[in-house]
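Revision sheet: C-alpha cells.
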Amino acid sequence: MRKRIDLHTHSLLSDGELLPSELARRACVLGHEAIAITDHIDASNINTITSLIDAVEDIGDNWDIRVIPGAEITHAPVEIIEKLAVRARGLGAEIIVVHGETIVEPVIPGTNHAAVSCPEVDILAHPGLITVDDAELARENGVTLEISARKGHCLGNGHVADVAREVGVPVVIDTDTHAPGDLLDYDMARRVGLGAGLDESEVEDALVKNPRKLLKGNGII
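Predicted:
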C-alpha cells in the first residue's frame, strides 16, 4: 500500500464527525503517512488550535502517523484573512488553509485573492473558478492550490488543474474530510487527480512531491 499525505481534514472541533484521535487512526489504517487536521476557524473559535495541538502531541507520541495541527480560515471577511492567518500561525497551526471560492457555496468574492496574496497561507482549498492572475499570485507567494475530493467542491477541479498547469503553480489532492467515508487511500486519490485532468506525472507530484515540499518548507519534515 502506497503511503499518502492529506493536508485538509476536519474533526469535531469544527464540523467533522470524528475526534482527532479517531480521524488519525482511520487515516493510519488507510495508509496515510501524514494528515493535517484543519478545522474551520474565524475569530470566534481560533483558540481551539491549542486543544488540537494537545491531541496531536498525544497521537504523535504513540502512533505511526504524523498528525499536523492546522486551521482552515472559512467564510471570514476578506479584510481579516491575513490577520487570522498570522494569529493561527502564532497559536501553533503548522498548515494554514483558506476556504476558497468553491462554486457551490456563497464564499465572499475576493477570498481567493486575499488568500493567495498572503504568504502565511499554505493552501487555497477548492478555489473554484480561480483566475489566472490569482494563480500567478499563488505561485509568487508560495500558496499551493487544491484539487478537492469533496462532493460539490470537486466541480471546479478541471478548471483548477488547467490554470495551475498554465501558470506553473503546484497543486495537492486533498479530501476535505468531514466523515469517516471521506478519507481516501492512495489509489482512489490518484483517480481523483486523473479525473481532474492531471496526467500520471502530475498526479504523482500532487500526491507525493508537492505535499512533501510544502511540509519541508514549513519545517515539519
